[in-house]
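Q&A log
Question type: sequence-to-structure
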Amino acid sequence: MAAYQDILTDLDDGILTITLNRPDRLNAWTGVMEEECREVITQAGTDDAVRCIVITGAGRGFCAGADMGGLQQIGDEAGDGDAKPASEAPVRGAASDTEDLEALYPGRFGYLYHCPKPIIAAINGPCAGIGLIFTLYADFRFANQDAKFTTAFAQRGLIAEHGIAWLLPRLVGEAHALDLLFTARVFKGAEAERVGLVNRALPANELMPHVMDTAKHLATQVSPRSIKIMKRQIRESYNQSFARSLDVANYEMEQSFASFDFKEGVDSFVEKRPPAFKGQ
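Response status: OK
Response body:
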């Protein structure tokens, strides 16, 4: 695959691994890293060779948040008179459930929700600020049980950025979300699992084997077409009534009966052999 400045990529047996690659800075987030991640994940969404995406960090960290040099520059350049009052902040109209995911989830990391492939965040070490937000847009999160997490924003004079005020309560509940955002305290992977922020926290030496086993299962044992539609169903459901969600499910069920993957799923089960799904 193409060479990048702040990330590494590797595609093997349908699993695309993206490694944030600034280990000397605990993979602190940069504009270049953001552009490269967006490019690679967007392209992977339409690449039939990619069945699952894994994102992790080089060295001992996942992502320690935004590069502080960049934050200092923002602070130095911002003038007191530049900020708009809240009443002038842009307000988006309520999205209808007929809009696609790109319309439903705009912003800096919405493209992870748009991507039809399953995305796993393998949080191997410190995960803070914008790095933490990035993982919340993944479909699965697995963590080193000793990895340190923090939202960080309140300790930097910032607010709940890039959709975390919407995402975090849906994952961990309002009480835990307010705790983690208001205090900006450091907590570890084991607590992240307890409150529902990650799917599972594991010993450091078990993290990547577990992640790759999960990725291999997703790449070989389940229908890419099913995952694509299920992912869209779940993300659209946040803006739908139950009745509308049920209508969509009934329609998609009818469509699935005519698909290659449905026939292959049934045939492989009856014939007691591994499936050979095509995503069709």
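Response note: The chain has two domains: 7-70+94-219, 223-270.
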